[in-house]
Amino acid sequence: MTKNILLLDGHPAAESLSHALLQAYADGAGAAGHQMRTHRLSAMSFDADFGVSRFRDAKPLEPDLQAFWDDLLWADHLVIAHPLWWGGMPAKLKGLIDRSFLHGKAFRYDDGKLLPVALLKGRTSEVLLTSDTPKVFLHWIYGFGLKQQLKKQIVNFVGLKLLRITEFSPVRNSTPQKRAKWLKRAEKQGRSV
């Protein structure tokens, strides 16, 4: 079944391993016949600061955020590729989420209910994560807090069922052969979505 896939290069730099992994994923998804739209965080211009205390006072979306939001509504599947920095996502990527996953659009609170209503149900998501942290440290020593945040407090919160987080690590001192294997893995995932 053909899917509409939104690809988000969540690295704030124009050239990165995240970008290469996302391109490999896109190559695989394209070969499988899926339709894709891509946004590159490095090329997007917006104020990453939510900057208000109430949802109803949220600033209007800048054109790049509005285009991202429109494509998210078009998509069946969201793929985000980004690095792990200080145990989390880059600040500009978090800003994109803060600014675009808004109350009344991505979720809403109903009077008398404790938990919000997810408004993006029926869609799936996955993350391609690069890191210098070896997996054993990320999972067993540090507890992989980003996974909990992404799954429970971002994507599932708004209804984007998180299918998987694929880790590519450690990036530091990785060989060209290792990176080539990672790119093949990302391409294979794109084919199998």
From TrEMBL:
Record-linked InterPro entries: Flavodoxin_fold (IPR003680), Flavoprotein-like_sf (IPR029039), NAD(P)H_dehydrogenase_qn (IPR051545)
Molecular function GO terms recorded: NAD(P)H dehydrogenase (quinone) activity
Sequence ranges assigned to domain Flavodoxin-like fold in this UniProt record: 3-188
UniProtKB keywords: Oxidoreductase
One Pfam family this sequence matches: Flavodoxin_2
Record GO cellular component, one term: cytosol
Family designation: Belongs to the NAD(P)H dehydrogenase (quinone) family.
PANTHER family with a match to the protein in the record: NAD P H OXIDOREDUCTASE-RELATED, NAD(P)H DEHYDROGENASE [QUINONE] 1 ISOFORM 1
Name this protein carries in UniProt: NAD(P)H-dependent oxidoreductase
Species lineage: Bacteria, Pseudomonadati, Pseudomonadota, Alphaproteobacteria, Hyphomicrobiales
